[in-house]
Amino acid sequence: MTDKGIYEDFSLVRRRAKAAFFAVGLLCAFALIVYWKIQILDYRKFESLALANRTRDIVLPAPRAILTDRTGTVVLADNRAAFKASFLRDNTRDESASIRRIAALLGLGEDVVATRVEKYKIWPRFRPIVVKDNLSFEEVARIEARKNDLPELIVEAEPRRIYPHATLASHALGYLQEADVNDLKTHPDSIRAGDMVGKMGIEGEYNERIAGREGKLVEIVDSLGRSQGELERTEPQPGQRLALTLDFELQAKAEEILAGREGAVVVLDPVTGDVLALASYPNYNPNKFINRFTPEEWQDLARNPDNPLLDRALQGLYSPGSLFKPVMGLAALATGAVGSDTIYFCGGVVDIYGAPRHCWNEAGHGALNLRDAIRYSCNIYFYQLGRRIPIDTIARYAGLMGLGRKTGIDIPGEKDGLVPSTEWKKTVRREDWYPGETISVAIGQGPLQTTPIQIAAMTARLANRGTAVRPHLLMGESGAVEDDAASSIPGGAFDQVIEGMWRSVNGGGTGAAAQVEGFQVCGKTGSTQTISRETAERIADGAKIKKTHSWFTGFAPRTNPRVVVTVLVEYGGGGGATAAPLAGQLFEFFKQKHDRPRATSGN
Amino acid sequence: MIDRAQLREIDWVLVALMVINTLAGVLLIYSASSDSGGGHAWRQLAFMAVCLAVFFLTISIDYKTWMTFAPYIYVLFLLFMAGLLLFGRSVAGSRSWLRIASLGGQPSEIAKIVVLLLLARVYSEYRASYVSTGMIGLTLSLVGAPVGLILLQPDFGTAMCFLPILFGALFLAGLKKKTVAFFLIGAVVLGAAGWVFFLKDYQKKRIEVMINPSNDPRGAGYHVLQSRIAIGSGGFAGKGFLKGTQSGLKFLPARHTDFIFAVLGEDFGFLGITAVLGLYFAMLARMFRSVGKSRDRAGIYIVFLAASVISFQFLVNVLMIVGLLPITGIPIPLLSYGGSSLLATYFALGLVVNVKMRRFANV
Lengths: 603, 363
Description:
The complex is a heterodimer.
Chain A: H1 11-41, H2 43-54, E1 55-60, E2 67-68, E3 75-87, H3 95-106, H4 110-119, E4 129-132, H5 137-145, E5 153-162, H6 170-173, E6 175-178, H7 181-186, E7 196-199, H8 201-205, H9 207-211, E8 215-221, E9 227-234, E10 242-243, H10 248-258, E11 263-268, E12 275-281, H11 295-303, H12 312-315, H13 325-335, E13 344-346, E14 349-352, E15 355-358, E16 366-368, H14 370-376, H15 379-388, H16 391-400, H17 422-429, H18 435-442, H19 452-463, H20 491-506, E17 522-528, H21 533-538, E18 549-556, E19 563-569, H22 575-595
Parallel strand pairs in A: 2-10
Antiparallel strand pairs in A: 1-8, 2-3, 3-4, 3-5, 6-7, 8-9, 11-12, 11-19, 13-16, 14-15, 17-18, 18-19
Helix pairs in contact in A: 3-4, 10-22, 13-15, 13-16, 13-20, 14-20, 15-18
Chain B: H1 4-8, H2 12-32, H3 39-60, H4 63-87, E1 98-100, E2 103-105, H5 107-123, H6 133-152, H7 156-160, H8 163-173, H9 177-198, H10 201-211, H11 221-234, H12 245-248, H13 260-289, H14 297-320, H15 339-357
Antiparallel strand pairs in B: 1-2
Helix pairs in contact in B: 2-3, 2-13, 3-15, 4-5, 4-6, 5-6, 5-8, 5-14, 5-15, 6-8, 8-14, 11-13, 13-14, 14-15
């Protein structure tokens, strides 16, 4: 303690003040280090965050490719400008209040909007969630009028898919639906949630080509998400216009003759593999799917017992029945089981392996060779072949003719069909093959299963005398196929079978109804039992189920064939009575169209 | 009251630092409000003119006189704030804004300086090496009364600004280790109790968010994240005056008040931060060193408490906008926009200069 007169000693408090100042100095140094870390060391990170903060990417959807028929003139799928209402969560503070107001304005249920928002809630808040599309002009006006007090509801333009001919070629074209989880997984780069993507048909198979490349608009935005101008813009690139192999008139005709029945029609160019017509009935209107918000209509279609979504031409599995007889004939001739003039006697019924086997003609066809057996579709003749050719040989020739596997047509969903063999029976049914089963297979029954497109492709091979083609729907696709029955089956065998098919149509055979004056149609009918003969006898008359499926497949003209027609009518009755005349109409239509002086281009 | 000799003793360096920092603030406020024509900056400039007048008024009256009046002003303030609580209008969720002739005035800011003066008076004759329990109780109640009223408004940030005054005074008077331990335990208990019973949900959320700001980027963590982005993206040299995108596009909240330092970081980068931090530190150093230039104990307390409260606000703000402390709404004296904050700061600095210039006077 020093005494300095009137002055007190403040050294203690001054020391304390100095200590406090020292602490302040340390904290200032610490602050400087913190700012060094953020501004110098972490600069890159924050720079990119700042950039993301002030820009917003807006997707400019690309219009889907226009799809046309084979001439390039008839448009089958087009785009129209349409408007959708979207909820921009960035522009609101109270989401549930916004949902209420949006629902009221658009006349939607609150739960509908809420479900919608819930579904996409993981999206960044600046990404608009579509709440209603295909707005009417009145709705657009109503939303625009409320722009100021409802900034979270915006109108976006988007090209909308439209199918001008509605149901025409619906199964071939396919349809669009909002992308599902699977789409997002398989195409993480090109498809995003909320996109409309092609499902089934051409739209599905060629989705990437059709979809084009979307454009991007980078906008500068302020903290309220309001645009402050464009930073960059990449224009969308529409998908390239695609021509399908479909012949518009033939397609329309095919659907016209099918209308009211359940069945399928395939018309092929046997040389190129071009699918000229591909019809399945009942069909659907793909325009209905372009709406994101009417799942009910989808449910209706999916639950419809007639199953309009099923493409019967590709996905329907049917016994080939008598259509298999030409294949049996080829197998018999190629293996030498019979010669061209080997004759069997048909007495209407024959006893094989201790069981009576019937011909469809109970009176019997008498003595006939292979050509006439095909002409009259005699069962007994083929039962005899079935006794002489082992099942695995039959299976090999069926395989050579393209049965039992996909044709490789360029739209998804095609079924394999089935050609049985001893190995198949062992692995799938875990039983041995009984020779009696071969007898059923010989007339196209038993476990055999085919699709109409497969039958058409098989018929094209027959017409080409062994040269296979791959059916396809996109113009310019190659129809060439590697495997080739021509080298395994002698040409003479084809000649015999084709002669039989020609007689079937032009010689008073079962296919007579398909005859076209001056067109040399060669064909084969089929009537396949959908239930066993015994069951049919037990149940009451008139039941639809008792009727057979009605088949016809054929080509014309006999030399240098230009067209293959395959018709299937479910529960249509006899092939000669139902399917053959329909095929005849198509042959007639084709002939007339192509005999006309060529005013327009096309083949 | 003022003579020529004292006039010569005015710490013009400190005055210059004060003015320079204020002008730096005006510049930043201009950048922060450039989209609205820089209106806030011009108003801040006008405030500054008024505050300079107040500053010279402050130094022209002996700090002893100010101390004499302190208790009366203190009581007036308590009554005034109690009245405000009962009748005040709510501005921005808080009642601390009193609207007088369209100028917003925040009495709590001035109350800080009044409490400072009051404590200086209380401790002017306190000579013990360590503060007694009685003095602690007295100090706590003197600070506690206005703080309680301010918390009721509720204005957590302003209430916090009384802490450096309270603990500054106790620290200067001498705290024993035992007492410090007692305060620490008390703070933990009170903090826990406050968390459970007192803090509003939004305040709790702010503290939670401080721990993890990216948890809720659009909600409470938004402010911290946006301010960090603004500062970090400024980099070494900054984006340039008025070129800050985060501020310019309004991603930064309250950017002319609580987040003015983030505007600085974005526009002028680490260089700007270093420069302003240096200027500010120079000012604080000048204030702390003035502790030694006081003729009496009261003066020491005034200078030290003024330096403490300004240091505290500066450091808390600078660390809070980078997410190291919870966002509590504490502006930076001189730099942040706001008339009453500026007024209180000029008043405080005026007292410091006042004490220093009268160090040779014999009264």
